[in-house]
Amino acid sequence: MNDSADLLKQLRIDRSAPPPRDSRKGLWIGLAIAAVVLLAALVAWLAFGRNATPEVRTAQVVAIGGSGGANASVLDATGYVVARRMATVSAKITGKVREVLIEEGQRVEAGQVMATLDPVDAGVQRDLAASQLAAARSQIAGTRAQLREAEANATRLGELVDGQLVSQAQYDQAVAQRDALRAQLATVQRNAQVAGDQLRIADQGVDNTVVRAPFAGVVVAKAAQPGEIVSPLSAGGGFTRTGIGTIVDMDSLEVEVDVGEAFIGRVQPKMPVQATLNAYPDWRIPGEVIAIIPTADRSKATVKVRIALLERDDRIVPDMGVRVSFLEKAAPQQDQERPRGVLVPASALATRGDAQVAFVVDGDTVQQREVTVGRTLGDDREVTEGLSGGDTVVLEPPAELADGDAVRVAEGDVES
């Protein structure tokens, strides 16, 4: 009996005892707290850490001067590629464009048809001249037939008048008629010649409706479209074109540079030069001085110098910017000792302490380099030590920028 009571007591629930704890619930709470902390750290980095990396603009260093060879640079200047033979081709007459047969970048040969004008008016004039010539030629044939008859009649009457079979008056009348027909034949022959000249002029008028290339070259601009009115002279309004297109003889490309009056004495005709296009800073193009234009620009205190390029390449196009180094022969030992210089924008140079430095981009960081600065060339400075051609430098470096700092290059950069 007591055993049964004890067993029943064991089956009773003790409601006064505390409920058991779930250990996994604490684990989940801890993980949630850690996730919140990590998310807050990520947001803080995006908001503050990324913006702490400065965004910079950059430019590429361009090598100039001697390269350890036989020539040394005595003067550097900047200029542009120009074409000595360039023409905006127009029609000789005013007319409506019928078709245009050129496109930009197309190469044309001398005499190649570039466009045609509506030939209706010129064609009508030619047909009229041809009809006048045919009429004049038919008059010649009729007059010649009459002349042959008059000459035979005069000959016959001449024989009869000698035998006194006809009167002298009849013979004289026949001779007069013969001479008149001779004069008339000469007149109609001249008229036929004039009509022939008029036909040739009319043919030229038809030919003037065809616009041809005056020389071989490349089309750099297409100015007219079918249906537009073109004229060799400006009509004073915006609805009349004065040209069909512009062509450039690429074999006539050369370089024009402005040299300061203080340095023009260093330049001589036939002097060797080395040209570097801004678009291709690692490409050295040999050349020579063609002429020094004998006039100065008083506003800039410069003298223009023409330079021939000794290499031809499709990459060279008009109006490209170019840097030119004027060279002269130097002793081999002097050439070997001459340092290789570079051009950098003046805004890339900064002062740290007592030294001038530039910051070279290396991946996502910058390297501070101490530089030796030489001449001032426009907006650029010559650096003789510390930088090499092809280096990428920071423009307008912030005052707090230091060696090894991380930077972000602005999109769409690098300048050259």
TrEMBL record:
Tell me which InterPro entries the record gives. Answer: Beta-barrel_RND_2, BSH_CzcB-like, RND_pump_MFP, YknX-like_C
Q: Which is an annotated Pfam family here?
A: BSH_CzcB
Family annotation (Gene3D superfamilies)? 2.40.30.170, 2.40.420.20, 2.40.50.100, Helix hairpin bin (1.10.287.470)
Keywords, in A-Z order: Coiled coil, Membrane, Transmembrane, Transmembrane helix
Q: Which residues form a coiled coil?
A: 133-191
Domain CzcB-like barrel-sandwich hybrid residues, every copy: 85-231
Query: The YknX-like C-terminal permuted SH3-like domain covers which part of the protein?
Result: 343-409
**Spans traversing the lipid bilayer:** 27-48
Domain CusB-like beta-barrel stretches: 255-327
Its family remark reads: Belongs to the membrane fusion protein (MFP) (TC 8.A.1) family.
The cross-references to PANTHER family, in alphabetical order and at most eight, read:
HLYD FAMILY SECRETION PROTEIN, MULTIDRUG RESISTANCE PROTEIN MDTA
Q: What is this protein called?
A: Efflux RND transporter periplasmic adaptor subunit
Native species: Novilysobacter selenitireducens
